[in-house]
């Protein structure tokens, strides 16, 4: 699904030198490379503040903590997402309110968000799933109308560009706070765990930095309850090298997606991912939709027998997860999330795909349906 070894070989000398520099300095925690990476990430995103942390889940938790929400406050999230989006809401004693997604984009259904808003709603967490932005123009309009905070989960969409009306910018810089993950398989991935939080609000940035550092702005003095979440210097050094290649990595993913689109377009049983007019798609995943679960599962096995990997993101929507089944509001329709969980299939997608590999994959899919 992801060829990290080949990607590393192409930038091996730069990465090795960066790692050796950290080892030589022995500044393994909060070394100068962490600040360098934060500054360069901030510049790339055109965000006023970028605060590295230990992982993407921490980024979401810290962002929510910075909003000073109270137990029982409601946070709207999509039902079709990775567990972290909902997990951190529950961990903080807040109430996740699950909203269905759009069947074509896999993104939260904005028309259904307003129906889910109550007097207890305090925030919306839109997820830029698979590499494409939610319509943040509409999200922000709702947030302004109801006085809500917006935390963007951009773990799969770093580098995606949004533009609609008078709102434009990189994914994660369009709401109040953006969160990302640098898990190795991400478009910008490190060699372990890592994450970051970004914002254009100086007050929020100060609070986020404090929370991520045990609730402390001055060593041994703690003004609030915080956590210990920091990006290792080694990971920061690696990420700083790879950040220079992010736009090229995203371009190569789009090139591979274009090939998939073209070669799969005439298979009636396969629905290729929709690209919206207001967002570039960086294809963290290339996800097709099949007609039903039986066809999806049979195709997956057929590909496996031909040494072609594929993945199901995500096989169980949040409202059917045992830990979160009590969060389903009986008045909320979540049928699309359930349908997608039974019919989506993600094909190999990474920076090192070549025409020969893509041809082999798409020819196998054609053979299956013929």
Description:
This protein is of the alpha/beta class and 370 residues long. Helices cover 40% and strands 15% of the residues. The chain has 13 helices and 13 strands. The protein has helices at residues 4-10, 12-25, 32-45, 56-65, 84-91, 110-116, 136-146, 202-212, 233-243, 246-264, 293-305, 335-343, 355-369; strands spanning 49-53, 74-78, 95-99, 121-124, 149-153, 161-164, 167-170, 177-181, 195-199, 216-218, 221-222, 286-289, 344-347. It has a seven-stranded mixed β-sheet with strand order 1-9-8-5-4-2-3, sandwiched between helices. The chain has a two-stranded antiparallel ribbon with strand order 6-7. It has a two-stranded antiparallel ribbon with strand order 10-11. α2 (12-25) packs antiparallel against α9 (233-243), α3 runs parallel beside α9 and α10 (246-264) packs parallel to α13. It is globular. The relative contact order is 0.16. The mean pLDDT is 97.
């Amino acid at each position: 699904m992801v060829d990290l070894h080949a990607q590393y070989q192409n930038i091996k000398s730069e990465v090795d030198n960066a790692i050796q520099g950290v080892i030589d300095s022995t500044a393994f925690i909060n070394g100068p490379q962490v600040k360098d990476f934060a500054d360069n990430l901030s510049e790339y995103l055109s965000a006023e503040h970028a605060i590295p942390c230990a992982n993407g889940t921490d980024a979401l938790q810290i962002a929510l903590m910075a909003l000073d929400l109270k137990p029982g406050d409601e946070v709207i999230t999509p039902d079709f997402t990775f567990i972290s989006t909902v997990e951190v809401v529950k961990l903080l004693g807040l109430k996740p309110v699950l909203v269905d997604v759009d069947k074509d984009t896999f993104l939260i259904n904005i028309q259904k968000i307003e129906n889910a808003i109550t007097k207890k709603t305090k925030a919306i967490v839109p997820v830029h799933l698979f590499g494409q932005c939610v319509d943040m123009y509409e999200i922000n309009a709702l947030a302004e109308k109801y006085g809500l905070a917006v935390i963007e989960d951009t773990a799969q969409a770093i580098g995606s560009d949004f533009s609609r009306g008078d709102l434009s910018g990189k994914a994660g810089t369009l709401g109040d706070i953006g969160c990302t993950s640098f898990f190795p398989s991400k478009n910008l991935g490190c060699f372990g765990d890592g994450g970051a939080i970004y914002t254009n609000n100086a007050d929020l940035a100060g609070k986020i930095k404090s929370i991520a550092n045990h609730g402390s702005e001055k060593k041994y003095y703690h003004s609030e309850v915080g956590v210990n979440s920091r990006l290792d210097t080694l990971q920061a050094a690696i990420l700083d090298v790879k950040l220079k290649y992010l736009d090229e990595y995203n371009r190569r993913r789009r090139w591979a997606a274009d090939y998939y689109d073209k070669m799969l377009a005439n298979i009636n049983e396969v629905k290729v991912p929709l690209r919206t007019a207001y967002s570039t798609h960086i294809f963290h995943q290339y996800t097709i939709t099949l007609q039903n679960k039986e066809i999806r599962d049979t195709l997956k096995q057929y590909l496996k027998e031909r040494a072609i990997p594929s993945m199901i993101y995500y096989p169980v929507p949040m409202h059917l997860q045992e830990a979160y089944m009590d969060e389903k509001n009986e008045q909320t329709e979540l049928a699309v999330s359930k349908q997608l969980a039974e019919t989506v299939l993600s094909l190999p997608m990474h920076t090192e795909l070549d025409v020969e590999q893509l041809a082999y994959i798409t020819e196998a899919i054609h053979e299956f349906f013929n």
